[in-house]
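Apologies for my clumsy wording, but could you write out the amino acids of a protein and the tokens describing how it folds?
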Amino acid sequence: MKKHLVLAAAAFFAGSMAMSAQMQVLKDAERAQKGGEAPAKVVEIITPAFTNSETANLAQTYYIPGKAMFGEFDKLFGLKSLGRLGDGDAKKMADDLMQGYDFYMKALPLDTVVDAKGKVKTKYSKDIINTIAGHVSDYNDAAITYWDVKDYKGAYNAWKVFLDIYEVEPFKSKNTPLQDTVLAEVYFNQALAAWQADSLRNALNSFEKAHAKGYNKKTLYDYALSVSTGLKDNDAMFKWAQLGNEIYGKEDPNYLGYMINVYLQQKEYDKAFTTIDAAIASDPNNSQYYFVKGVLYDNMDKKADAKAMFAKAIELNDSNVQALTQYGAALCQEAYALSDQAPTSAAESQAYFDQKIKPLFEEAATYLEKAWQLDNENMDALRYLENIYYNLRDEQKQNEIKQRML
């Protein structure tokens, strides 16, 4: 019996020693933090407590390194106000803020103390909440710092903290609310950071929040469409195209083009024609609408109807690069089709070419050359022109086109 008692006592003593050792780690880390040691040193001391069962769920375990991070930030902020920041200190300030936030947010839900009467009290929560809320503008500065050093993920996360402080309790009530117009700008910037970080879904979510706050600039719809396209999210693509078209449709018919493209992918031709015909009815002199209708016909393999729409688009605007390119391409396609029907004898074939095919290629070249002159990055026009001059046996012009393609 005595032996069992001795073993039990030994086990209890060993457990007490282990707990004491872990609590000593916390005391050592707190002493280092209060003594002004660098946050990295404080984290090094306290790291064993993160995984020990006795300390891993104590608010103090995360509060101590968090306080060290904010302490270093405040010291560097003082140097900044005196113009004495060293190289890399701005980035260090941003890192301190973000790491301090992460530690404090781990401590916050663990910060409950139950007294002898069963009443729940908190020890660190007030300081945590006030500290984070009090540094709200610094998180915006941190995001800009990350952006400047091309750490776009860091910029996104810093703007997330900034926005949460204004939008989410327990921080929201600690600051004077910002106008939606300001929040909208920040959400938009956050979306750009996510986009640069290749986090497309986060970018789209932030664009949506910017729009919900009233952001209404054309770039929002253009960028959101690009991100939706990158995600291959047809629902989002259609939504942003429709929203953009409502405001900027007459200025930029490409929104309508996106909508039509979604209908085409889903083979909803009736909806596509209803949409484009309504647009033409509202603005019958809009060249681009006829171009879009031409593309719609082309996708349905109605080549003659498509060509007629491209011609109408050029009639309304002879500088419509897309219509010029597609009309020239349509003429080339007619020439190719005739080539397949050419006579087999050399003499008849040459006469057939000169009378029927050559005029189509020459006419196509005039439209495609103009399209390229208006847009020197129009590779579609150049590819058709190279083939035209090959068929016309004009080696000089063919080589010239090859040079342009370089």
